[in-house]
Specification:
Blueprint lengths: L8 H31 L4 H31 L2 H24 L5 H29 L1
Helix pairs in contact: 1-2, 1-4, 2-3, 3-4
């Protein structure tokens, strides 16, 4: 009978903070896309994909945080591992918004850099937690 608590408190806190931050990130990105579409000549065929990717990213984020939290709290490596895999997709999307979206503002750079930092930190803690669960 294992009486040790293996679930990671720092990881759970980070999931919570990340969830709050992502709401801000999503609204800020959405706001900036709207702003850019007004302020710049935003080609219509670029506006839709940028918006679609932002919404896909939001769905991934909800899944990622849900699976990560569930895996951490139930001390199961499978949901946590899946969350880690989804993080790869989230990182790619964040890099897209950082580098490849139609117009990149300084604010885009800042909010994506913060997001990528939290992803990195979270991923390290996930790997540590998974290692603790499987050992």
């Amino acid at each position: 009978n294992n009486s040790y608590q293996l679930s990671s408190v720092p990881l759970q806190i980070l999931f919570y903070v990340n969830g709050i931050y992502y709401i801000f990130y999503f609204l800020a990105s959405l706001g900036m896309i709207v702003y850019k579409s007004e302020a710049f000549s935003y080609p219509d065929d670029f506006l839709a994909p940028d918006l679609a990717l932002l919404f896909i990213m939001a769905i991934l984020e909800v899944l990622r945080l849900y699976l990560g939290s569930k895996g951490n709290l139930t001390e199961e490596e499978a949901p946590l591992g899946l969350s880690l895999v989804i993080t790869v997709g989230s990182v790619i999307l964040s890099v897209y918004f950082l580098v490849w979206q139609t117009y990149v503002l300084k604010a885009d750079v800042i909010i994506n850099a913060v997001l990528l930092f939290t992803y990195g930190l979270e991923s390290v803690l996930k790997v540590v937690a998974i290692a603790a669960f499987v050992s």
